Each structure stands twice: as structure tokens, then as C-alpha cells.
């Protein structure tokens, strides 16, 4: 929102980011937590590009296997919900913004971080949401061609961990819109149309005493 206000990025793009993130929050709450409100705790727009060089048989990861609200220990299968983990995160979401790339699949594993249990191929507009705990260890395979962009979002039940930057961005954009409206109201028209001349109607009595008629003078 600050970049939009400075003119570095478009205001419409910044507004779209806020609207989409709120839509994701609404859908996630409706599916997972209809009786308890969820709040956005962090929103992250991220793009990953393929590195140069040989791509065949690549098995490296863009994001190593982890859980979002606890520290995963693959050796014991435990996930410790303590710092430095973001322990207040309750649900996670990924909204894919494109699919014209190769690699970059999201995958889920057993707590050992080795046994893959599910794999998700990114599709533009696809939303993947899941609980953030040790029941959902996940990672991302490397992008092997092109660039992968996604909007990552985390949600919390704790209102004290709401994303303040999101609220401030919304307020900044609202202020910018109000300022633009005021400027438009104060700005005079560049090509004002002349007002049409007033028409005067004069009744003229017919010389023969007939009913009066109207003559227009421009």
C-alpha cells in the first residue's frame, strides 16, 4: 500500500492483493472453522525461479519439509510447538498465481519428512489450505523451468496476532482513494461546454386581431 501511494506500483494491484487475501481467509474459515473466527496473521507474495544449468533428475527442494507452527523433528516424529516456531498459526494457505512453469510442486509427508503422502500440482487460481501443525509436514520441490508465483497466507484464532500491516495497508489505500476523489472534485473541467443561450419568448399580437403566437428570439 505504501508503494501504491508513492506511485511505485498500481493502486488497483494493491487493492486486489488485499481483496484476494481476505477472500482466502473467508474460504478457509468457512471450511475449517465456521464457529470460530480466523484472522490473517501473515501474507506473503513469493516467486521462485529456476536456476541455470542442468535440470534433469533434480531432487532438491525449494522449501525443505517443515510444519508451520512447530519445530519438526524427523528422527522422533515429534513436532515441538515452541519458539522459534510461529506457534500462533492455526491454518495455512497457498493461492497459486500462475502455472506456466515446471517443477515447484507442493508435497506432504509423514512426520519422518521422507514418506510422501500427497502431492499438489500448482494451477493458476488453485487454493490449498490445511492445518498448520505437525499433522501436515510439507515442502516444495524446486522449480526447474520458468517462475512460480504464489500468495502464501497464515491464519490464527488469536486476534492479538492479526496482521497489523494488512490493516494499515487497507487504511492507506482508503485514504488514497479519498484524496483522489477530492482532487477530482476540485479540478475544473478542461473543456467546459458553453451554456446554451436563454430563450426569450415574446407574445406578438397579430395585426388582424387573431390569437397571439410565440416568436423565439435567440
UniProtKB/TrEMBL annotation:
Keyword list (alphabetical) reads: Dioxygenase, Endoplasmic reticulum, Glycoprotein, Iron, Metal-binding, Oxidoreductase, Repeat, Signal, TPR repeat, Vitamin C
Gene Ontology MF, one: iron ion binding
Q: Does the keyword rRNA processing apply?
A: no
Where is the sequence biased in composition, kind Basic and acidic residues?
203-218
One Pfam family, short name: 2OG-FeII_Oxy_3
Cofactor(s) needed: L-ascorbate; Fe cation
Which InterPro entries does the protein's record reference? Oxoglu/Fe-dep_dioxygenase_dom, P3H, Pro_4_hyd_alph, Pro_4_hyd_alph_FE2OG_OXY
Sorted alphabetically, the Gene Ontology BP terms of this entry are: collagen metabolic process
Which stretches does the entry tag as region Disordered? 170-218
Q: Which reaction does it catalyse?
A: L-prolyl-[collagen] + 2-oxoglutarate + O2 = trans-3-hydroxy-L-prolyl-[collagen] + succinate + CO2
Residue ranges with Acidic residues bias: 174-186
List where this protein forms a coiled coil. none
* SMART domains associated with the record: P4Hc (SM00702)
Record Gene3D superfamilies: q2cbj1_9rhob like domain
Q: Which family does it belong to?
A: Belongs to the leprecan family.
Q: What is this protein called?
A: procollagen-proline 3-dioxygenase
Name of the encoding gene? LEPREL2
Amino acid at each position: 500500500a505504501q508503494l501504491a501511494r508513492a506511485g511505485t506500483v498500481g493502486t488497483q494491484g494493491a487493492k486486489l492483493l488485499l481483496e484476494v487475501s481476505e477472500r482466502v481467509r473467508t474460504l478457509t474459515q468457512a471450511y475449517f472453522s465456521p464457529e470460530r473466527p480466523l484472522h490473517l496473521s501473515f501474507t506473503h507474495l513469493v516467486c521462485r525461479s529456476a536456476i541455470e544449468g542442468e535440470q534433469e533428475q533434480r531432487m532438491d527442494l525449494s522449501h525443505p519439509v517443515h510444519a508451520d507452527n512447530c519445530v519438526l523433528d524427523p528422527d522422533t516424529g515429534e513436532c515441538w510447538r515452541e519458539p522459534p516456531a510461529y506457534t500462533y498459526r492455526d491454518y495455512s494457505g497457498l493461492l497459486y498465481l500462475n502455472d506456466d512453469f515446471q517443477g515447484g510442486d507442493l508435497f506432504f509427508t509423514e512426520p519422518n519428512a521422507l514418506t510422501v503422502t500427497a502431492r499438489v500440482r500448482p494451477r493458476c487460481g488453485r487454493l490449498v489450505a490445511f492445518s498448520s501443525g505437525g499433522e501436515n509436514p510439507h515442502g516444495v520441490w524446486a522449480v526447474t523451468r520458468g517462475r512460480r508465483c504464489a500468495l502464501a497466507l497464515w491464519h490464527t484464532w488469536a486476534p492479538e496476532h492479526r496482521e497489523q500491516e494488512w490493516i494499515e495497508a487497507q487504511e492507506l489505500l482508503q485514504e488514497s482513494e479519498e484524496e483522489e476523489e477530492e482532487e477530482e472534485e476540485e479540478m475544473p473541467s478542461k473543456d467546459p461546454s458553453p451554456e446554451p443561450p436563454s430563450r426569450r419568448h415574446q407574445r406578438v399580437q397579430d395585426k388582424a386581431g387573431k390569437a397571439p403566437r410565440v416568436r423565439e428570439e435567440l
